Amino acid sequence: MKHLNKENVLFLVLACFFIGNTLIAEVIGPKMFSLEKSFGFQPVDWTLFGIEHLSFNFSAGSILWPLVFVMTDVINEYYGKRGVRFLTYMAVGVIAYAFLMLMLTTKAAPADFWVAINQDIKPDINTAFNRIFSTGMLIILGSLSAFLVSQLMDAYIFHQFKKATGDRLVWLRATGSTVVSQLLDSFIILIIVFYIGADAEHRWSWNQIAAIGLMGYAYKVLTAVVLTPMLYFVHAIIARYLGHELAESLKKSAVDPV
What we know:
mainly alpha
């Protein structure tokens, strides 16, 4: 650690949180949860574009994605587009590697004793494990594509806002970049998985994509707004750790043309 300066240590910490959260979000993604029921409310049962019985049902990974985008804004603030791009590519590589390892583990033959001691799980624990962790290639492609495009767009828009506003209006550049990037994130995966990659029988209509995509988008934007105070809190911790002079120096270098 004696050869690591403060800005490098900070980058490593942010990188761990960023890549760790993206990986966890992908791994827990197969579980679907009801936002309303999680807070003790009945589902909203809305109708959009002629699609009935819509409610806030999302992949469990959606719980962590807002935190990922908060981290994106923090990284962009101090390390610029280069830092965000580097960590985005790293995260994509780690997620792809994780999916490969999960695929290999689902192909491994289960030990008899493991199945026997978990015999209360029906039909059996190996089938349950494989059902959860066997993610289709199309979903992997859609998920990684949505993540990559939205992250790079978030970094670009944040950078443009920061060049225009300087150190002022942190909430504006954070929320503004998220509003646009999450619109892409919400629809890219749906289009790839349920329209481009689906056969004619199971292909979603554009109304379905629009309705379900907007439900997810509304959740992400609302969460980003709610988490805005966390952004200021993280900035305060970083400023205290780096010191005013170093923090301002990093911010200044982050807006230089890349």
